């Protein structure tokens, strides 16, 4: 005998059978994660930002203000308006210093760029030795002051080993750093020697981005190394070369250490570059307002040159597909 269950049958809701589903676990909100990442990024950026504000932005703003004043550290700054800039325009020494600086920049940039490009191509095409790259970079690890002193001793007219070799070869001794004609080219070549290895490694890094397939295809077509350099290497290296040129030009206009150590602006102001003249006006004659005006003028010149270089060289574009 079968006993029927007295419990009533379960009724299904109108929407159909209820399926048991496990609810997904809720993850932290993206806003919270982004907020945490932002705080971490701010913590890492803060030291560099503080250094930028204290050692770059504030001195720049302070210098612009002082360029409109008469200030000698002993008395409060006196507002003189555009007097310093009028004096600068009428100052023949300022224009002579600017001319000397431009001469230095032309020699330094011309020789350094050609030499660095040649070294970078040779490193990329002939050898990949890390030891050789380290040797090329060695002069850059030396400070400007030490490099200037070393070459001052080497090129000394009476006791320098460089002039001793020239004399032993039967030629007359050359007053490299004591003659108006030789002084600026000599200082420019000293700085080329020191910086060319670093510039070459920057260009070498740019050469690594050029695909080897292009060179192999050019060889199949019978192209020579010289033709590949002009048709492949130079066009594809243009963005990196443009940035390197901008950096080296800015650095060249700010030459000071080598001049201060070797010639101190002489002979007869032949090496009195603009940075050295600004330094002499500020810390030698305590004319901080006038020195600030010349510094602002140099800032404007460098900004204009940088913008012009960036646009002419199309540094923001690349021919690599």
Commentary on this structure:
By secondary structure, the chain is an all-alpha fold. Helices cover about 65% and strands about 0% of the residues. It has twelve helices and two strands. It has helices at about 30-65, 85-90, 90-125, 130-135, 145-155, 160-170, 185-205, 210-220, 225-255, 255-260, 275-285, 290-315; strands at about 70, 80. Strands 1-2 form a two-stranded antiparallel ribbon. Helix 4 runs antiparallel to helix 7 and helix 11 runs antiparallel to helix 12 (about 290-315). The longest helix is centred in the N-terminal third of the chain and has 37 residues, at about 30-65. The N and C termini lie far apart (about 90 Å). Residues about 1-20 have low confidence and may be disordered.
Class from helix and strand fractions: mainly alpha
Task: Tell me about the largest β-sheet.
Answer: 2 strands, antiparallel
- The strand order across the widest sheet is 1-2
Look at the structure and give the mean pLDDT. 86
What is the CA-CA span between the terminal residues?
88 Å
Shape: globular
Beta-strand proportion: under 5%
Elements, N to C (H/E): HEEHHHHHHHHHHH
Total DSSP helices? 12
Secondary structure layout:
Layout: H1 30-66, E1 69-70, E2 78-79, H2 83-89, H3 92-125, H4 130-137, H5 144-154, H6 161-168, H7 183-207, H8 212-220, H9 225-253, H10 257-262, H11 274-284, H12 288-313
Antiparallel strand pairs: 1-2
Helix pairs in contact: 1-12, 2-12, 3-7, 3-9, 4-7, 5-7, 7-9, 9-12, 11-12
């Amino acid at each position: 005998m079968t006993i029927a269950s007295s419990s009533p049958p379960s009724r299904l809701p109108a929407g159909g059978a209820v399926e048991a589903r496990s609810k997904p676990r809720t993850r932290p909100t993206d806003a919270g994660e982004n907020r945490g990442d932002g705080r971490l990024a701010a913590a890492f950026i803060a030291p560099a930002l503080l250094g930028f504000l204290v050692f770059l932005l504030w001195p720049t703003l302070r210098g612009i203000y002082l360029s409109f004043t008469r200030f000698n550290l002993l008395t409060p700054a006196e507002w003189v308006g555009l007097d310093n800039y009028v004096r600068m325009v009428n100052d023949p020494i300022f224009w002579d210093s600017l001319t000397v600086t431009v001469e230095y920049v032309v020699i330094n940039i011309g020789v350094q760029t050609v030499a660095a490009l040649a070294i970078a191509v040779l490193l990329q095409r002939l050898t990949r030795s890390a030891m050789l790259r380290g040797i090329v970079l060695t002069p850059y690890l030396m400070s400007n002051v030490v490099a200037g002193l070393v070459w001052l001793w080497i090129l000394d007219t009476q006791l320098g080993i460089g002039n001793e070799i020239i004399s032993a070869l039967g030629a007359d001794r050359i007053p490299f750093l004591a003659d108006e004609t030789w002084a600026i080219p000599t200082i420019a070549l000293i700085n080329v020697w020191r910086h060319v290895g670093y510039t070459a490694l920057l260009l070498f890094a740019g050469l690594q981005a050029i695909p080897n397939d292009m060179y192999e295809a050019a060889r199949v077509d019978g192209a020579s190394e010289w033709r590949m350099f002009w048709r492949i290497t130079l066009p594809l290296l243009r963005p990196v070369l443009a940035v390197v040129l901008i950096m080296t030009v800015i650095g060249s206009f700010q030459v000071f250490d080598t001049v201060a150590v070797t010639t101190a602006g002489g002979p007869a102001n032949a090496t009195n570059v603009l940075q050295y003249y600004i330094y002499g006006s500020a810390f030698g004659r305590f004319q901080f307002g006038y020195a600030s005006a010349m510094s602002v003028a140099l800032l404007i010149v460098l900004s204009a040159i940088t913008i012009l270089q960036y646009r002419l060289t199309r540094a923001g574009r690349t021919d690599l597909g």
